[in-house]
Amino acid sequence: MNGLSFSELCCLFCCPPCPSRIAAKLAFLPPEPTYEFMSDENGKCSFALTERAEWQFSEREKENVEVFFTRTNRGNRIACLFVRCSSTARFTILFSHGNAVDLGQMSSFYLGLGSRINCNIFSYDYSGYGVSAGKPSEKNLYADIDAAWQALRTRYGISPENIILYGQSIGTVPTVDLAARYEVGAVILHSPLMSGMRVAFPNTKRTWFFDAFPSIDKVPKVMSPTLIIHGTEDEVIDFSHGLTIFEKCPKAVEPLWVEGAGHNDVELYTVYLERLRQFVMVELDN
């Protein structure tokens, strides 16, 4: 029945896991913060990386980084980071990162990626990550991206058609949720998951009432051009998740299946940057 064994079904019906427990077990591994926000006498924040960060900013690069706090509709104050990578950028990427990193660890990647595909990048830390307040949860995840979206729209005046939503791993969950509600310039789903239960129990064929992160049920509502990226040897989120998300997404473009790549090394393959450049700088500009 629905791809689950009899023993698994008995376990689920006798003591079904609540969505928050699935979420906590599968997704949330906030690292020790690798950065700090420091406020001056006027209340303006600046960004400082700690010794735990693998890469430090130069003074010139710091000039292109703006940080601030915004508050979610669930009351958590979350950290936001805007990286001006290009003065001629048409698009700004709203980037939702993976589960075991924070803005400090991702900042060098953002600078490099944005400069190579001519995009500015706006990102945020989930509740309980970095210097963001609160605790990680599925509900907070959706509230976090909503707050980031509103901050990007109101603080910088960027129109939805000039925003690209980029989610990586657990970051694809809030990305799909937002993309199902707003039409944007484009969506990029990097190593997406169908749902929490489908990760924990790979033979699951339907969405149970206690499932967490049900992106598979939301992606048919995404009406923006969507690029899906997945490594064929991913041992964290199986390649089949990317394939199924691709099949269910009505606006999916030619995907990028990275042969031999796992969950955390897709960016190291030359085809990754090549496909992103083609998507952003050629397909979306036509």
From TrEMBL:
Compartment list: Cell membrane; Endomembrane system
Subcellular location, principal: membrane
Entry annotated with the keyword Membrane: yes
Gene Ontology CC entries for this record: endosome membrane; plasma membrane
Membrane among keywords: yes
One Pfam family hit: Hydrolase_4
Ranges that cross the membrane: none
Domain Serine aminopeptidase S33: 90-197
Alphabetic keyword roster: Cell membrane, Hydrolase, Lipoprotein, Membrane, Palmitate
A GO term for molecular function: palmitoyl-(protein) hydrolase activity
Signal sequence extent: none
Its membrane topology: Lipid-anchor
Reactions listed under catalytic activity: S-hexadecanoyl-L-cysteinyl-[protein] + H2O = L-cysteinyl-[protein] + hexadecanoate + H(+)
Assigned EC number: 3.1.2.22
Family label: Belongs to the AB hydrolase superfamily. ABHD17 family.
Record-given protein name: palmitoyl-protein hydrolase
Organism expressing this protein natively: Phaedon cochleariae
